[in-house]
C-alpha cells in the first residue's frame, strides 16, 4: 500500500484493520515478509507490528487516535459560529455586509473566547464550507439613476457611427480612404491623366 502523501487524508480505521489482519496472520505462524507482501505493507512496518504484537498483543496495534493537534473549537462552538456567520455582519455590529477575516476572528473570539489570528480563520471557514468571494469593485459615489439618464440622453450623440468599422488608415496624419483602396499603385507613383 503506498504511503499517504503529505496533506492527504488517511483512513485511520482502514490502517487499524490492516494491523489487526497482520496480528491474525502472525497468530497463524506467517512470517513478517509474507504478512508485508499479503497486506501491501513494507517489511519494516510488518517488523514493527510483529514486535508490538509479541510484546503487548493485539491491543498494541490499536489506532493511536487522531493525528495532529486537537482543534481549539469544539463541534458545538463551531455550530454557534456557523449560525452567527449566516446572520450576517450587520447583525453583529459591523458597518457593511461583508465578512472579512479580521471580522470573523473578532466574531469567533466574542462567541467562544478563543482567539485566532485573522490569517488562520480561513481554515475554520473552509471547515464550515465557506468559500472566498470577492465583491465587485464599484465607486461609492456611483449613482445608477444618473448613469441610466446619461445613457438615455447622451449615449446616441457620443456613440460611434455605423461606418466607423470600415477600413481606415493606420497613419495618424492621413485619413483613411472610404473605398478601402489605395490611391497609388504599389512601388510607383500613381499616374494622373491630364485634364
> Low-confidence runs (pLDDT<50, min 5 residues)?
none
Number of helices: 8
Question: Would you count the extended β strands for me?
Answer: 0
The best one-word shape is elongated
Residue fraction in strands: under 5%
Q: Helix and strand succession?
A: HHHHHHHH
Described by strand count, sense and barrel closure, the largest sheet is:
none
Instruction: Report the span from N to C terminus.
Output: 96 Å
What does it look like?
With 195 residues, the protein is an all-alpha fold. The longest helix is centred in the N-terminal third of the chain and has 16 residues, at 12-27. The mean pLDDT is 81. It has helices at 12-27, 32-39, 43-56, 75-87, 101-112, 121-127, 144-153, 155-158. The chain is elongated. It is built from 8 helices and no strands. Among the domains are: 12-61; 75-127, no CATH class. The protein starts with 11 loop residues before the first helix and ends in a 37-residue tail after the last helix.
Amino acid at each position: 500500500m503506498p504511503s499517504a502523501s503529505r496533506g492527504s487524508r488517511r483512513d485511520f480505521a482502514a490502517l487499524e484493520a490492516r494491523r489487526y489482519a497482520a496480528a491474525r496472520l502472525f497468530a497463524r505462524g506467517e512470517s513478517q515478509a509474507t504478512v508485508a507482501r499479503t497486506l501491501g505493507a513494507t517489511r519494516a512496518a510488518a517488523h514493527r507490528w510483529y514486535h508490538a504484537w509479541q510484546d503487548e498483543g493485539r491491543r498494541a496495534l490499536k489506532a493511536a487516535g487522531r493525528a495532529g493537534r486537537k482543534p481549539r473549537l469544539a463541534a458545538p462552538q463551531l455550530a454557534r459560529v456557523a449560525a452567527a456567520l449566516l446572520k450576517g455582519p450587520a447583525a453583529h455590529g459591523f458597518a457593511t455586509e461583508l465578512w472579512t477575516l479580521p471580522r470573523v476572528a473578532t466574531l469567533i473570539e466574542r462567541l467562544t473566547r478563543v482567539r485566532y489570528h485573522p490569517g488562520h480563520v480561513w481554515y475554520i471557514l473552509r471547515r464550515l464550507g465557506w468559500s472566498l468571494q470577492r465583491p465587485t469593485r464599484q465607486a461609492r459615489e456611483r449613482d445608477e439613476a444618473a448613469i441610466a439618464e446619461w445613457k438615455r440622453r447622451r449615449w446616441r450623440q457620443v456613440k460611434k457611427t455605423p461606418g466607423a468599422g470600415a477600413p481606415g488608415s493606420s497613419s495618424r496624419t492621413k485619413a483613411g480612404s472610404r473605398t478601402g483602396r489605395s490611391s497609388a499603385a504599389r512601388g510607383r507613383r500613381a499616374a494622373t491623366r491630364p485634364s
